[in-house]
Amino acid sequence: MSNKEAKAALKSARDAIRNKEYKEALKHCKAVLKHEKNNYYAWVFIGLSAAELEQPDQARGAYKKAVELEPDQLLAWQGLANLYEKSNETDVRGDLADVYQKLLELYKSSDKQKWCDTCNKLVELYRQEKKYLEVAETWQELIQMKQEEGAEKAELHQLWKKMIQLLKDSTEKQDNKTEQSLVTAFEHALSTADAVPGEDHQNLYKDFIQCLSKFPHEATRLEEACNDMMALYPTITYPLEALCLHFLQSGTLSEEAQHCFSRLLEMDASSGPGIIGSGIKCLQEKKYKEAIKSLTEGLKKTRGCPAAWHYLVEAQMKIHKHRDAVLSCNQALDAFRTAESPSLQWKNLVLQLKAEALIRIGGADAAEEAIKALEQIVDASSDPVVLAIRGRAYLNKGLMDEASKISQELLLSHPDLAESHALEGFIHYSQKNYEQAERSFLNAIERKAETAEYHQYLGLTYWFMSDETRKDKGKALTQFLKAAKLDSYLGIAFCYLGNYYRDIAGDKSRARGCYKKAFELDETDEESGTVAVDLSMELGDMDTALSILNVVTEKAITGTAKWAWLRRGLYYLRSSQPSKAVEDLQAALRGDPKDANCWESLGEAYLSRGSYLTALKSFRRASELNPELVYSVYKAAAVEQILGKYKNAITTYKEIIKTMEDYVPALKGLGECYLKLARSAL
To answer: TPR repeat ranges (predicted)?
Structure first.
């Protein structure tokens, strides 16, 4: 076949394709290839015809042969692009991207519009594949092309905004180059905006700040962006809130941070981050209760600030609200699970605090939960303080061997660490090896003298140590005073100070003050509350006694705080308020229905009120529970005497006299009953 014939055949093939006679076109092309196997156009036409006849493999092979023959010719590359675009196979996307890249190279000098169209297609392909770095690089090429052509500022602004949209999901992948591209896009979009200040520009700035807040290493840029936006929009709180949240998450509590918190509260008194900042300031100033109040309120208004939970837990631990601290830790850990960029450092700190709180709650179950929390801490095995906490958890669980093993390892590897010696002290104290415990706690105090707990346990060690120290509690007193001075919320220190002043010094007034303080710090401490009330009554200070009892009974749920109900009931009984006495004594019995003494007191209250039948039942119930309560038996007989049941009363009086011949009240009652019967017989 001559060249002239080949050209004619190719023309016939082109006409057949135009008329959609693809099989006919294939015949002409094959005829050409028999004589000229490297004919570029023949291969292109075969690719096109095969594609239309739904023979993709043949089409692909033909196009590839064509590009091998003429790699800088457009037709075959365009055909390949069309073929791959129509394909439903996902594995051709990589090939399609290569084809688009080649087309960009070919269009660059010949057809700018087609270059832009292909660029858009390539970017969309990369976006679907989540290849955000390639998206960024390709889109920047498009913007550069537009800049070289002298595009208007408004058009460039839209292109930069489009780039932001394309990359907005890339923050999940944490690719540094892509992050920089996204930040660059924001900066250019902001600089090319027309209406400044304006609503669109303001929203763009908000998105920029939100984007920067997800990148921990962009702290400086974030602070600059917030300050710039505040300068442009001084009445908008968003940039200030974002800056405050940044300071919270980064743990930066500088003067600048405190200034931002204060300024935010001035602009919006209900701002969550501002209230949290106020709480942190209170924490730093050791105003722990105010800190807890502000942090709790701020956290209700603020989402996405797990670090603030850490400060709340810290404040709760400072005032020994350990159960509240555990609940807050659990909420903090839930917040970390849903946070966009959770901080491992904050999570580890919260887990450590949770374990410490559980250890102070005490008990095997709490210890088990503490061990589980410690297991979640990353690199816990390399942190000696965490290991010491684990040792205490094992000790609380009764696993003495495991606790001792950790203690020995810590003393060898970290002999200068206070926690190493403290753990050894806790182990000796639990085994009542007080002399060894004393040495360990003294070593711990030598290394960390400001820890109140070490002084507390050294005081307890001296308190229980030996006969000599039992007689002279001076050493124990010194340590309890130091513990109370270092930690004014340490209730147990005040309780033992109360024990000292009551039992050793004989100073009831000072003892009462210490017990009262201990109870105010820990309202679950029944021992301190009971003694504080009893001493107040002994000292004639009924107002203090009642104030303590009222606090307890107001908060008590059914069946609890028996000691408080009983004491207040007895007070009302002595002060001739029988109806109130009945209510309180009934509440006390709900907590312990088998308390014979309480039933006896309730009988007295009913009797004072004039409720004779219920008084009789109460006295009988008391004597049933404790037959040795002669007074209850006597009072039951006395009530029957009042009710005119003289024979029953006589029987009961006689039973009392059988066991106690000189029990005067029974003798008197017996005589009165005989006299009444004699009168009725006249």
So the answer is: 40-73, 562-595, 596-629
Q: Which residue reads 């609890």 in tokens?
A: 560
Name the average pLDDT for the chain.
Answer: 90
Look at residue 243 and give its three-state secondary structure. Answer: helix
Q: Are 333 and 348 in contact (CB under 8 A)?
A: no
Buried b or exposed e, range 54-91, using 16+ CB within 10 angstroms: ebbebbbebbebbbebbeeeebbbbbbbbbbeebeeee
Q: How far apart are CA 339 and CA 168, in angstroms?
A: 17
Query: Given the structure tokens 């000691």, which residue do they identify?
Result: 563
Cα–Cα distance measured from residue 163 to residue 211, given in angstroms and rounded to the nearest whole number: 14
Lowest mean pLDDT among 158-172, 317-331, 403-417, 589-603: 158-172
CA distance 15 to 49: 12
362 backbone φψ class: left, alpha, beta (φ>0; ψ -120 to 50): left
Question: Does 320 have pLDDT greater than 70?
Answer: yes
CATH superfamily, domain 195-302, is Tetratricopeptide repeat domain (1.25.40.10)
Q: Which residues contact 572 (CB under 8 A, 6 or more apart)?
A: 578, 580, 581, 584, 605
Q: What angle, rounded to 10 degrees, do the helices at 452-464 and 418-430 form?
A: 30
Rounded Cα gap, residues 505 and 367, in angstroms: 38
Q: Is the pLDDT of residue 13 over 80?
A: yes
Tell me: pLDDT of 3 over 80: no
Min mean pLDDT across 67-71, 211-215, 276-280, 451-455 is at: 211-215
What value does the CA radius of gyration of the chain take, rounded to a whole number of Å? 44
d(CA 298, CA 238): 16
Q: Which two tokens stand for residue 232?
A: 């442009």
Length of the chain: 682
pLDDT 10s digits, 51-69: 999 898 899 999 999 999 9
**Sign of the torsion formed by the C-alpha atoms of 498, 501, 506 and 510:** negative
CA end-to-end distance (rounded Å), the chain: 161
- Residues 6+ away with beta carbon under 8 Å from 548: 516, 519, 529, 532, 533, 536, 564
Q: Are 24 and 55 in contact (CB under 8 A)?
A: no
Task: List the structure tokens of 594.
Answer: 């088998």
Domain ranges of the chain: 195-302
Handedness of CA 466, 468, 473, 479 (dihedral sign): negative
Structure tokens at 545: 């006694």
User: Which residue has tokens 């722990």?
Assistant: 288
CA torsion 72→78→79→80, rounded to 10°?
80
Half-sphere exposure of 493 (CA within 13 A, CB side): 24
| The pLDDT of residue 342 | 58
Q: Which residue in this structure is represented by tokens 């850490």?
A: 310
pLDDT of residue 326: 96
Closest CA to 115 of 107, 123, 105, 106: 107
- The yes-or-no verdict on residue 198 having pLDDT over 90 is no
Spatial neighbors of 386 by CB under 8 A, at least 6 apart, are 352, 374, 377, 380
Give which of 447, 385, 454 is closest to 416, Cα–Cα: 447
Beta-carbon count within 10 A of 258 CB = 16
User: 180-184 long-range contacts, Cβ below 8 Å, gap at least 24?
Assistant: 181/133, 181/136, 181/137, 181/140, 182/136, 182/211, 183/211, 183/212, 183/215, 183/218, 183/221
